């Protein structure tokens, strides 16, 4: 992997020098970090001072890579196409959820870790799912107090942000299965809307599903829920604290119904 690739995967494509500075600052106790696997964009080992208590840290890095089966070419480079990791593989090493960033035309322009998307309110993609039963009742719920966005608020749909590389429909199925424990259903697309709020900015696709089976909450997401006739939902949303983005999407849905 290269310094620039790490920076890009973490949502800071211009911060390759920051990555280098982090590796430079490693202490003896932190040498379990695989610093030697990071090379420059040409596949070369970058020169550094003797911070690792080795006679020749450049040679040490080359030797460590050779021990792992990586061969240097005649130009003194390690082939990143042969030995490098994909962005997806690298994201897996960081154990952090990466979200896609979009522009105002909903075109993907990059990725960023979820905490960064939240802290800087970056424009991304999301889904909302209305879950009905065959009686025409809608499942409503209350979010847990530990949610990173709009904790302890009520909602008439489940949903969330799209992970990097994820399609809207796949995300909708994942969210409704994770949060409500539904089985195999086929989400039906209803509309797209842009929510541009002070704490969340996202292009949201709204879907609906029909489910008559048992509901099993995702404990970290939901602390209360119930089936509710639609006419009661219309009154209920005016009486409780509804998540702002969910209310925006729900009103767009009501407008689409005429």
Structure description:
- The chain is an alpha+beta fold and 258 residues long.
- It folds into 2 domains: 3-94, Winged helix-like DNA-binding domain superfamily/Winged helix DNA-binding domain (Arc Repressor Mutant, subunit A, Orthogonal Bundle); 98-257, Nucleoside Triphosphate Pyrophosphohydrolase.
- Helices cover 31% and strands 23% of the residues.
- It contains 9 helices and 9 strands.
Reconstruct the topology from this structure.
Layout: H1 3-9, H2 16-24, H3 57-67, H4 80-83, H5 87-94, E1 98-102, E2 108-113, H6 114-120, E3 124-132, E4 137-143, E5 154-155, E6 158-161, H7 168-180, E7 188-196, E8 201-210, E9 222-229, H8 230-236, H9 244-257
Parallel strand pairs: 3-8
Antiparallel strand pairs: 1-2, 3-6, 4-5, 4-9, 7-8
Helix pairs in contact: 1-2
Structural class label: alpha+beta
Number of helices: 9
CATH topology of the largest domain: Nucleoside Triphosphate Pyrophosphohydrolase
Order of SSEs, N→C?
Answer: HHHHHEEHEEEEHEEEHH
Q: What's the mean pLDDT score?
A: 85
End-to-end span in angstroms? 53 Å
Q: State the strand order across the main sheet.
A: 6-3-8-7
Strand content: 15-25%
Spans of at least 5 consecutive residues with low confidence: 49-54
Instruction: Tell me the major beta sheet.
Output: 4 strands, mixed
Radius of gyration: 24 Å
| Number of beta strands | 9
What is the correct CATH architecture of the largest domain? Alpha-Beta Complex
- The helix content is 25-40%
Q: In CATH, what is the class of the largest domain?
A: Alpha Beta
Label the overall shape: elongated
Can you identify the CATH superfamily of the largest domain?
Nucleoside Triphosphate Pyrophosphohydrolase
The overall number of domains is: 2
